[in-house]
Each structure stands twice: as structure tokens, then as C-alpha cells.
Amino acid sequence: MRKYLMINGSNMNLMGMREPCYGTVTMAEVEEKLTKLAAEYGVEVEFYQSNHEGDIVDKLQEVRGKVDGIFMNPAAFTYTSIAIRDAICACNHRVVEVHVSNIHAREEFRHHSMLAPIIEGQFVGLGAKGYEMAFRYLVETDQEKDAQQGR
User: Fold this and answer.
1) What is the tally of helices (H) and strands (E) in the chain?
2) Is 22 part of the annotated catalytic residue set?
């Protein structure tokens, strides 16, 4: 069975209670929706959140070769973390980046993602729906690949 991992960085545990640009949907609600969607697809999804950069690096290393894809909102680490970038490269994960708010319409320092050049794509500014879209993208592209290979 295919397995996917959602990783959230700093302060995303406060989603739904943060600034208005993050909306009112909580992370628990996002996880509940994705758990149901995973069951519909017949895949597994795991959730991980940390406010600590090194813990995210450890998680990326821990799941090396054990997940089929990762969708992540690195939050503030997006703009600063060479360590997370290096862990993604070293572990050869398929990664899609998610941002609830439109990082390109916010402060200038948020316009540049350290991860963008090494990942498959981004879902930006679509609210909590971006997580679902990223998850669907990973699962459906794997399903298409499986179908092409006759699995």
C-alpha cells in the first residue's frame, strides 16, 4: 500500500487560530479530511508537525524509502532552511510544497522558497484546500504511473 507524509513546520499547529490569511480551518480538520480521502484512495497518510527545524530533518531521514511522497508546509523554514533542503535532496523524496497563504503577496522575504528549485511543485495561497490538492496530486500521479506499468 502506498504511503504519504504531510509535514508542517513552525506554528502550523495554530492554523485556524492565526492571522486571517490562514483562514479558520484547523489542522485537525485538515487531517480528518485527508484521512478520509486516503481511505477513498486506498492509501495511507501520516501527519507530522514540528516547530523545530532539526526534528523535521530527522523525520525526513527517518522516512527515507518508506513513503511514496511528501507534501509539506515548511512555514518559516521555507525561507531559511538549507538543512531541510539538504535532507530532501539526500533522501530523494518526491516533495510538493504547500502554503496556506499567498507567500508572493506577503512580505518580500517570503517570496523566495529555499525548496522550490528541488521539489516537484507548489500549491500556494489556496487556503487549507492546498493540502488536499497536493495530496491528490501525489496519489494520482502515482496511480497513473502504476497504470502505465500495469500494476
Assistant:
1) 4, 5
2) yes
